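Appendix B. One record, verbatim.
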Amino acid sequence: MAGMKDHDLDLATHLVHHDYQPPDGFVAPQPGVFKASTVIFPNVAAMRSREWKGKSGYTYGLHGTPTTFILEERLCALEGGLQCVLVPSGLAAIANVGMALLKSGDEVLIPDNAYGPGKDFANGELARFDITHAFYDPLDPADLAARITSATRLVWLEAPGSVSMEFPDLCEQVRICRARGVTTALDNTWGAGLAFAPFDLTGDGSLGVDISAHALTKYPSGGGDVLMGSVITRDLGLHMKIKLTHMRLGLGVGANDAEAILRALPSIGLRYRAHDEAARQLARWLQQQSAIAQVLHPALEGAPGHAHWKALCGAAEGGLGAAAGLFSVMIDARYTQQQVDVFCDSLRLFKLGYSWGGPMSLVVPYTIASMRSRPSPHLKPGTLVRFSIGLEAVEDLRRDLQQAMERAFPA
């Protein structure tokens, strides 16, 4: 410390301003965890000249640290994007996009089977800013085309739909929006950058979404213990709109949460494949059970939108296709809601809980009619139950399902 010797300082000051710096050159499998609100500048000139919008330097904790910069770049590699912002949850990603791109008088179109809290955001916060919204039929591209107006600025896409798992003709939806000059944003949590490439849907670079929003809470985390989201783009101008709103809203993520995602990312492909294989085995078994009227899994023949899933995702995994470890069933209408609740309560390995993508299998019963604004003729009558398949042994999960069905739906 210029002009002052360490022995001149009080111990309390010396502990704060100790000048030891570890040597450079430390390399390990995992990146370091940098926690900071304040970032120290070497001089005033550096403070005045350093730019926060890119990754050329550090200015303040909210604008990035080595830990978050590394995570952003790895997520871009996962999804095929070029720019990324990190937010506290998947819902925050949806909100960040809406706040950045929409203003009073604009309209956003949302698939009728979209993630419920995202629809609530449009009904609540966006509506208060005089931003209108409408719901379109995700299985009918013509309905989407008919609903785009001169006020439409943003179209949300979801593949497959939330809870009821319909897989849309995503390529045609993007073509329609591109022809009308409308920005597309995809909730890519299910695909996770693994089932298909959101920015290169056709494999030749000619067609892709504009924005990919991702709930990193699910497969990138993999542990059921981190809340985080991302918004990824390939267009710098679009990214800067999102990033400036991100800054003005004061959005940020904790360094330890970023570390947890970084630790989990190397295994995401292995985990995703394991979830997928187990889910398909159990979904096929459930198709044979008399209490089940319908199994809603995009990779199964006859499921709503299966042909679209096969066209987009079928080349993955050596032609087996890729799908997340998530599916729903319609329990036959002859069984009461009380019996369905007994079924869910009787499961021992499947736990009652929201979210998915973690090591533990989960189950949630839904009242699907209350979640949709239009009829769903492709769904058979009954009560919908969603399963998230974890990493337990498949045979143990099958036996758990069997004993619960025997208790709730006796022959």
